[in-house]
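Inputs:
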Amino acid sequence: MKKSLSISTALSGGVMILLFWQGLSWLIDSPVMPSPIEVIPIFIRLIYGDLGLHFMASAGRVLASVTLAVLTAVPAGLALGQMPKLNRVFDPLIAIVYPIPKIVFLPVIYILLGITDISKIFLITVIVFFQILVVVRDEAANLHPELILSVRSIGAGRRALFRFVYIPASLPAVLTALRISIGTAVAVLFIAEQSLTTWGLGYYIIVETYQVLLYPEMYAGILGMSLLGLILYFLIDTLDRTVNRHLHLEK
Amino acid sequence: MIDISNLTFSYPGQPPLFEHFSLSIDRGDLWSIIGPSGCGKSTFLYFLTRLIKPDGGSIMIDGEISRRPRPQTGLVLQDLGLLPWSTVEKNVGLGLKIRKFYGPDGLHAPSGSKLDQQAGQQIVDDWLHRLGIADLKDKYPSQMSRGQRQRTALARTLALSPDLLLLDEPFSALDDPTRKDLQDLIIELNRERDLTCLTVTHNIEEAVFMGRQILILSRSTNRIPEVVVNPSATDFNHEYFQAMCDGIRTKLEHPA
């Protein structure tokens, strides 16, 4: 998971997928499997229209969820990691909730929060929240007491400790957690968008294209959703390599 | 400079380490503190930085009763105090950055200590050179030797121009030439800028070299400080240096 995706790997992987896809469409030779030569121009045309708006709606939901999850899980994880007593209280709860597939609560969330975007964003936030919470907590618990003492000794109070020690110390953990959970986040989004909205790639792929047999358009939607996941992964990866240079040193 | 009176302290569930312990330390003095492990010598330094609060008694530093960590007091720990995600240069500049973060409020940074970016960079550069780590400024702590890391930690503290320097077993894990080099530097600074300097160590020779006054702490409750005045400090070739070491060793082996 820690291996970063370089541009050249991504490009050659992309070319391989296109070749595979092309081969499959020759083999199946049916309207249900259009070739990339047919789909890509449609994708390019549609992305400047409705598909682009669906893409933005999905991207907005993921970004809002991830932002909310980071803003809540990082302080909570730091607090748990630095306060063993607090952690002992919450640990059983976290241990139980962490592995539960939270998507099954989607109907409950709809009932409680209504059928607005807030429900979808909330669901993804909860999923990403637990991933980040656990790694940040473990990272904060492993900070050397000597490190904190010595930074306090050069004048740092609580605010400076946060700014100069806790936040940078937990960044690698946050990015690792995001790297792992971004795929899940997009997958959950795909399912959540299939109902009770009219915008988003999940809605576009299932309701607007698949159910009305618009196969080339459906593939354009799938391409869009794949790109969304890929772009987010690339962003996290680039961020990881710029802020965590000390973890990517050449030996 | 430092007036400790009636200091009392015990860790929970243990006999007191200090009871009505009083001691005065003058400005510009060079002290070493020695004792067996568990005698409270590191704890003693933490009182002075206020990272640990004593149970009773008061500590006056520079005429003020100590209630919070004092920005002009510098503490150097044995190791592990560097930010692993920052380069040497950034680590050395950390204290100055923290001061800038708070502004000269008198609590986290001395009041009236305003520094612009350029002056701060100049200070960092000067200490990088003086500690002999200027060539390493873009390296990360994991890429350096123990000695180089300790130089970085020293530079970080010295960049804040402390008037009181507390060293907690600073050189115990270093090879001989590096240790010698850093000991000499501390003594130079003590002479050059009247820097009051307290070194905690378990090494007898280091205690004799680094202390014009040597405070001996014992594992039982410390009440009346046992202080040895040491004319052979800072001079390995002094005629009494060896005798002084033997004397300290005897005191440590047969506590009063």
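Chain B is about 35% helix and 20% strand. Flag for discussion at group meeting.
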